[in-house]
């Protein structure tokens, strides 16, 4: 399948970008075609009514349209969606036709905190539902990620490590049923 990945922070050392890299590797190992958007690709101008979308926003729009599924790997800022990612979502929701309608989405997060960014994913679910995207009921979260994510983005806690392929494969099976 064609899969898109979107996420991480604008920090070069982003834990979420590192986790995204591991998930990209896992998807490629399963034979999927992957388009990943991180770092500078997410640095869009602040959404403004009447302003034309940038080339970067158009590239994201095209990739989400072509994708049969999307992985969002999001930091949690103040129990919500970080501004740079919400800005991406807002741009893409104003560029017709909507790439979100019926798009299967797997939510993922990494945080140094004990909840692994899970509270931010609650906010993501409300936003995705508003746009008609289909958020998978499960999620991948990595708590204590400053200590429990290795240099390749692989969780070092055995339970978290075991949950990653299980959740990913469950999501991929659902995306295949919905979009193949
Ligand atoms: C945070 N962080 C944070 N962590 C968390 O678990 N819950 C939270 O509500 C917040 N809130 C928050 C707000 C702001 C403005 C910042 C800058 C940070 C900490 C955050 O999880 C941590 O910085 C991660 O390392 C950010 O992800 P990246 O940049 O490593 O991908």
Strand order of the largest sheet: 2-1-3-4-5
Overall number of structural domains: 1
The first-level CATH class is given as: Alpha Beta
CATH level-3 fold name:
Rossmann fold
The tally of beta strands, per DSSP, is 5
Q: Spans of 5+ residues with little confidence (pLDDT < 50)?
A: none
Cα shape = globular
Average of per-residue pLDDT values:
97
Strand content: 15-25%
At CATH level 2, the architecture is 3-Layer(aba) Sandwich
Number of helices: 6
Q: In which range does the helix fraction lie?
A: 40-55%
Give short descriptive properties of this protein.
180 residues; alpha/beta; Rossmann fold; 5 strands; binds ligand FNR; Flavoprotein-like_sf; NAD(P)H-dep_reductase
């Amino acid at each position: 399948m064609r899969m898109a990945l979107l996420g991480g922070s604008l920090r070069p050392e982003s834990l979420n970008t590192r986790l995204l890299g591991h998930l990209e590797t896992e998807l490629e190992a399963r034979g999927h075609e992957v388009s990943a958007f991180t770092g500078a690709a997410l640095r869009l101008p602040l959404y403004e009514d009447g302003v034309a979308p940038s080339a970067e926003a158009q590239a994201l729009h095209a990739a989400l349209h072509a994708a049969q599924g999307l992985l969002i790997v999001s930091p949690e800022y103040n129990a919500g969606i970080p501004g740079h990612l919400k800005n991406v979502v807002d741009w893409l929701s104003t560029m017709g036709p909507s790439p979100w309608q019926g798009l299967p989405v797997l939510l993922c997060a990494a945080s140094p905190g004990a909840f692994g960014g899970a509270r931010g994913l609650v906010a993501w679910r409300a936003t995705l539902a508003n746009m008609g995207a289909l958020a998978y009921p499960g999620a991948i979260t990595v708590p204590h990620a400053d200590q429990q994510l290795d240099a390749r983005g692989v969780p070092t806690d055995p339970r978290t490590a075991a949950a990653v392929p299980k959740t990913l494969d469950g999501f991929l099976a659902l995306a295949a049923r919905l979009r193949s």
